[in-house]
């Protein structure tokens, strides 16, 4: 079976899904038609490789003209996939359709809806942390109504998503108001979630998150075009209890502990992949010891083996202030090193998607500067070789 190029996948998946939808609704469902549809669907699904793309910050907040300008940048630069948040309004649903029409797949980060009486932990300007609602106040039924609106509008536009990711970095203080600020400066373990008073409250939020995930799956399962769109759990932050956490007195739950807890309470019945975020350290050229230590840390703290679902690395990157590719060679080398590691994970079945953070300027992690995709960016968005 031939492999489907990533940039063609949104078109093909949309066509396949529409064929299946017509057949399922047709008055006479002949065995031949059903077998044909299943053969094409399974064949293309089998041949599709790892989505590789970029994050676009604040895409939903730009004007329609600004959105179109960014879409043009993405298409011209050969970006195959985008991860971003979009509200279910006309402007942003039109953007979802435009991305698909231009052959750019969309991983949609969907918001969790909260109870009307949910408190809001205030922002902390000293630590540069945002205000945050406690995850334990997540409201499944309000979320259901929100998800239904999104999927109905996507169906109406004929948009098939590459994936839908629920929430963002729910395992630490910056995005989850169940963590107090200041905290203990800890990375909580699986045992802490049943023993430490603060971590026990965080665990209650995780259980509420699973209820919202279940609702998302129900809505997804009943959509016309996105019944098989992968559901990805929130990209978790790489909090390991390092000196920066202790200095800022901010807490989180490690990625392995977060997923161990969620899996123990039914996560694998609800998702198709585990979202993770990581910004690995750069190592000096030729420093084999540091390179080996980096890989060991990633294998232990970000991508531990032995899980039933693959990881989706929905944020990763390296910072740089360079204004040209010629001045950005250190970052380009680091990207090449990490892509070799990601290919290893992909071929093991441990990784199913990677998304660079971030596309747009003026962020130091951006890879599109001065109207040009930098060399580090070209390496970051290159399609993943076949398994």
Structure description:
The chain has 387 residues and is of the alpha/beta class. 42% of the residues lie in helices and 13% in strands. The protein has helices at residues 9-25, 31-47, 64-76, 90-101, 140-157, 192-195, 197-221, 243-248, 255-264, 288-301, 329-347, 375-381, and strands at residues 52-55, 81-84, 105-110, 163-168, 187-188, 231-235, 252-253, 274-278, 311-316, 351-356, 368-369, 372-373. The protein has an eight-stranded parallel sheet. A two-stranded parallel ribbon has the order 5-7. Helix 10 links the parallel strand 8 (274-278) and strand 9. Helix 1 packs antiparallel against helix 2, helix 5 runs parallel beside helix 7 and helix 11 (329-347) packs parallel to helix 12. The longest helix has 25 residues, at 197-221. The protein is globular and about 50 Å long. It starts with 8 loop residues before the first helix and ends in a 6-residue tail after the last helix.
């Amino acid at each position: 079976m031939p492999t489907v190029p990533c940039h063609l996948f949104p078109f093909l998946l949309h066509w396949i899904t529409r064929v299946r939808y017509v057949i399922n609704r047709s008055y006479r469902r002949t065995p031949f038609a059903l077998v044909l549809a299943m053969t094409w669907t399974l064949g293309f699904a089998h041949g599709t490789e790892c989505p590789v793309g970029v994050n676009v910050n604040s895409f939903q907040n730009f004007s329609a003209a600004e959105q179109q300008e960014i879409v043009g940048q993405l298409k011209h630069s050969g970006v195959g996939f985008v991860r971003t948040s979009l509200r279910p309004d006309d402007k942003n649903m039109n953007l979802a359709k435009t991305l698909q029409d231009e052959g750019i797949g969309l991983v949609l980060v969907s918001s969790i809806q909260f109870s009307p009486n949910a408190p809001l932990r205030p922002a902390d300007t000293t630590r540069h942390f945002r205000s945050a609602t406690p995850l334990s106040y997540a409201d499944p039924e309000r979320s259901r109504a929100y998800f239904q609106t999104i999927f109905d509008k996507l169906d109406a536009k004929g948009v098939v998503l590459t994936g839908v990711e629920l929430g963002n970095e729910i395992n630490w203080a910056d995005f989850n108001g169940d963590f107090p600020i200041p905290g203990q400066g800890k990375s909580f373990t699986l045992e802490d979630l049943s023993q430490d008073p603060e971590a026990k409250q965080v665990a209650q939020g995780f259980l509420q998150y699973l209820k919202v995930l279940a609702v998302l799956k129900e809505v997804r399962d009943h959509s016309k075009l996105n019944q098989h769109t992968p559901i990805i759990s929130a990209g978790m932050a790489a909090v390991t209890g390092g000196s920066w956490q202790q200095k800022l007195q901010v807490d989180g739950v490690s990625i392995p502990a977060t997923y161990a807890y969620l899996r123990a309470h039914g996560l694998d019945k609800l998702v198709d992949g585990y979202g993770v975020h990581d910004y690995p350290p750069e190592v000096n050229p030729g420093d084999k010891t540091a390179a080996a230590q980096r890989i060991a840390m990633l294998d232990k703290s970000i991508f531990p083996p032995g899980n039933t679902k693959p990881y989706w690395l929905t944020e990763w990157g390296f910072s740089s202030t360079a204004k040209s590719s010629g001045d950005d060679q250190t970052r380009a080398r680091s990207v090449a090193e990490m892509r070799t590691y990601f290919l290893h994970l992909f071929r093991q079945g441990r990784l199913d998607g990677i998304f660079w953070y971030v596309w747009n300027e003026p962020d130091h992690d951006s890879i599109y500067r001065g109207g040009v995709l930098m060399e580090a960016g070209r390496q970051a968005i290159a399609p993943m070789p076949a398994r």
